[in-house]
Amino acid sequence: MQEIKIYDTTLRDGSQGEGISFSVMDKIKIAKKLDEFGVHYIEGGWPGSNPKDMEFFKQAMKLKFKSSQLVGFGSTRRLKISPADDDNLKALIKSGVKAAAIFGKTWDMHVIEVLKVSLQENLRMIKDTIEFLKSKNLYVFYDAEHFFDGYMKNKDYALESIRSAVSGGCDAIVLCDTNGGMLTHELSTIVRAVSSECQHVALGIHTHNDSGMAVANTIAGVDSGARIVQGTINGYGERCGNADLCAIIPNLQLKMGYRCLPESKLKELTEVSRYISEISNMKPQDNQPFVGRSAFAHKGGVHINAVMKNPVSYEHVAPDKVGNHRRILVSELSGKTSIILKAKDMELDLTKDDPKTKKILKLIQALENMGYHYEAADGSFELLIKKELKKYKPFFTLEGFKVNIEKREDNTLISEAIIKLNVNRKEEHTAASGDGPVNALDNALRKALTKFYPTLAKMHLSDFKVRVLDEKTGTAARVRVLIQSEDDASSWGTVGVSENIIEASWQALVDSVEYKLLKDKVR
Predict the structure, then answer these.
(1) What angle (nearest 5°) sits at the alpha carbon of residue 174, between those of residues 173 and 177?
(2) Which of 396, 446, 402 is nearest to 426 (CA)?
(3) Helices (H), 476-500
(4) 331 pLDDT exceeds 80?
(5) Which residues have C-beta within 8 Å of that of residue 517, sequence separation ≥ 6?
(6) Gap between the Cα atoms of 523 and 517, Å rounded
């Protein structure tokens, strides 16, 4: 298998994405994870641009990377300054890296209007900078910024910039679609034409997603001769993002026969994606190819039936190849098959011809028509099935609750819930405050139950969503509340629907608690 080198720039280009701000410790954690994952190069940042990146390199130099080479980023020397006197280049050397990525201008418009130097001086800046870094024994990537735009406008000058980098002694040329505007057929033609200029150096590809083409263009770049792939985990990056390594790596390895990572590491792809999204404080994209929660989720009845007979019928790769898993969604569209499969997971025996199966399907269809949504509420669905099959005994009963909201003169809001429950024939009456009425109700419910069921102290709500279902009725509209809960072992969703948001929240809260207790009882 021919090897493709994976060059990750999540810590530099990815950090330029809107909403992302890494601390030094965040960057250290991500660098460790990428090294464990097995990427070949980790671009840590730009040492000369800010104190945070310099501190990162200082801390990272204390680490022992097993798989990855740490790379520092920088630009060509400034006008009328030798490389040895350029502060950015001095900071790059001081960082202690053994590899550097230097970007330079290849588009004549940028040279004249943005950099404001002569075309010949720009070529000298490229060559001088690379010669200086090579004299310091660094492995040097030359990132040809805006290369494809430059090639389209002035092919001769774009190629001259590449030749200047090669004559300076660079180890790799990376062709960059910096504006993300190239179409695949254009990019392929250009990469093939340029490869003859890079016969004695490695050729890489760096694309952005402004036209939604970043992954396709990267694959096309490899198909046309590139052997280094630059990208970010989850496609994080400025504007519309960079090429998503979570899609590029499995496509290259599973479908095109290239070796990007050891096969055992490819199975960690989904976990790496979610780990880095967590540190980045970015919500994972459910529909993200390969690693998304919905990537192998099946909802339509025809699809589910076919997948259970042969997964290839509706899955382009096996989920476990990338560390993901198949999900069967329950809805009015999914038919009896999904109910039977879900029941099997609960160790309940249902068949297509069983009247109970038909009854449960009709119940689900009726409830979803009212606004319930079970594909995101696995906890509520299991409780519904077990209640319908008389396989469930309630852990408590509600005698009543009251929620008070008080706004005081100083504009502070006070929320308090009072609740009365019956647990094992014992009445429990308690109250609790909270940050809003739902939080107060949640606190009161668990305060009343924890003395009877201590494991409730180990669960918490991780997400709370409210959706208006019939907005035309205004404030009297029916709402759906979805709650995600988790403990130290798993996560589950529950749902409630009502014209009253407190009642809808109560339904979802009760299901959340009861599912936790049911799960613990089974365990």
Answers:
(1) 145
(2) 396
(3) none
(4) no
(5) 395, 453, 455, 456
(6) 10
Which of 1-15, 233-247, 426-440 has the least mean pLDDT?
A: 426-440
| Token pair in block for residue 203 | 């050729």
Structure tokens at 381: 């669905």
Put residue 175 in one of left, alpha, beta given phi > 0 → left and psi -120 to 50 → alpha. Answer: beta
Residue 423 CB neighbour total at 10 angstroms: 16
Residue from 453, 521, 456, 451 nearest 486 by CA:
456
How long is the chain?
523
Residue whose structure tokens are 């005081």: 408
Closest to 229 (Cα-Cα) out of 199, 266, 258, 200: 258
Shortest CA distance to 195 belongs to which of 167, 164, 168, 223?
223
Q: How far is CA 12 from CA 49, 70, 180, 379, in A?
A: 11, 12, 17, 40
For the segment 139-149, the average pLDDT, to the nearest whole number, is 97
Q: What is the value of pTM for the model shown?
A: 0.73
Of 421, 344, 354, 435, nearest to 382 by C-alpha is: 344
Residue 470 vs residue 283, higher pLDDT: 283
Residue 407 neighbours by CB under 8 Å, 6+ apart: 413, 414
Neighbour tally for 418: CB within 10 Å: 16
Please choose, from the candidates 73, 70, 139, 136, the residue with its C-alpha nearest in 3D space to the C-alpha of residue 104.
Answer: 73
Residue 74 contacts residue 89 (beta carbons within 8 Å): yes
Least confident of 30-34, 334-338, 488-492: 334-338
- Helix (H) / strand (E) containing 359: helix 355-370
Give the list of residues 6+ apart from residue 270 with CB closer than 8 angstroms, or none.
Answer: 290, 291, 322, 323, 324
Q: Which amino acid is at 17?
A: G
Rounded CA separation 335/249 (Å): 35
**Closest to 256 measured CA to CA, from 296, 230, 218:** 218
- Write the CA distances from 210 to 9, 177, 181, 237, 239, integer angstroms: 17, 10, 6, 11, 7
Identify the residue whose tokens are 């993002």: 241
